[in-house]
């Protein structure tokens, strides 16, 4: 689901403008409302909270997005790195929100010596509404048309009804993206040319290293996943010298449990009915292996779905009800097609 973010790319082309932070004068739940964020106006050595006024929804209801900024030492705004954390762009994908909250709890104790800036929007699109308005505002009025971001991490989960392990999309063609992806130590690392208009790809197209992290189930907070991504964000902040390094040499990611692939292939069901999974997430599959049955209401098998290649089950439906054309499972593998060297979604 990418409708919101498709529009980001369009607004990135509008005229360049720079302003001071614009306080509207409103205060919401004790938090000042702004319509434009300029990091030079944010207090250094502190964590600041804002609501970004992004205009009005249908019916004139004002919409405000929470923004958190951990700004480090005064000069590190220029000399340190600026890391963007976003979650909740698809309203039902919630694990990343808790990652951002716990990272900011931690930064409370580190912000006075922080070497750089962390700028976060924990719930980019809570209502799933008004995509145009949100995209314009986030790109221009929080990220300053990318001038206020050096590295971006966009946290997602699969859509409701699907299950996967911890994985990421990473466009290895831009320097530092591979390093970011490996610092995640994901279960699956999907080398990928990106989804046009996604936050990640909009950043990457603008030469800002970014990855999309997919963390488990929609509508669930899973502590295991949250902790793994929390540790990852710490490794990134360490790698960017934002926090004091725990390592004497650059951290060597442990990729012993990471399945690195270029290709994901969907296996859709022809029929509507009930999908019975024969292979679970992260289990290996061989070409031609039966991976799912689709049954009708009487229990008859309408179709058996087979793996298109040797690889691994990567994402599959936990909701057994299935519509014609919907995914009965997605397999990841390395395609031998040279066109897939930088990543394919089949
Ligand atoms: C955004 O930045 C690009 C250059 O990186 C520039 O061409 C464009 O005009 C800017 N847009 C806005 C809205 O500032
Ligand atoms: C923030 O303000 C400074 C100083 O006024 C200016 O140089 C800079 O371009 C502004 N940045 C943005 C993103 O508007
Ligand atoms: C600041 O916000 C006010 C109202 O919220 C708006 O009228 C004004 O155009 C804004 N100024 C800038 C420079 O964005
Ligand atoms: C702060 O970050 C910058 C940019 O990564 C780096 O060059 C510099 O060495 C860092 N400073 C400290 C004290 O870590
Ligand atoms: C959380 O995810 C892990 C896999 O990372 C899984 O083993 C565990 O059962 C999940 N916990 C809950 C409460 O869903
Ligand atoms: C797939 O290819 C990549 C290099 O593009 C390699 O690092 C990885 O180990 C391969 N994965 C598998 C499962 O063979
Ligand atoms: Zn998503």
TrEMBL record:
User: Which cofactor does this sequence's record say it needs?
Assistant: Zn(2+)
Q: Name one GO molecular function term.
A: hydrolase activity, acting on ester bonds
Sorted alphabetically, the keyword list is: Hydrolase, Metal-binding, Signal, Zinc
Q: Which InterPro entries match?
A: AstE_AspA_cat, N-alpha-Ac-DABA_deacetylase
User: Where's the Succinylglutamate desuccinylase/Aspartoacylase catalytic domain?
Assistant: 80-128
| CDD domains linked to this entry | M14_ASTE_ASPA-like
**Phosphoprotein among the record's keywords?**
no
The signal peptide, as residue positions, is 1-20
Q: Name one Pfam family in it.
A: AstE_AspA_cat
Q: Does the keyword Metal-binding apply?
A: yes
Q: Tell me where on the tree of life, at the top rank, the source sits.
A: Eukaryota
Family matches, as PANTHER family: BLL3975 PROTEIN
Q: Which protein are we looking at?
A: Succinylglutamate desuccinylase/Aspartoacylase catalytic domain-containing protein
Source organism of this protein record:
Clohesyomyces aquaticus
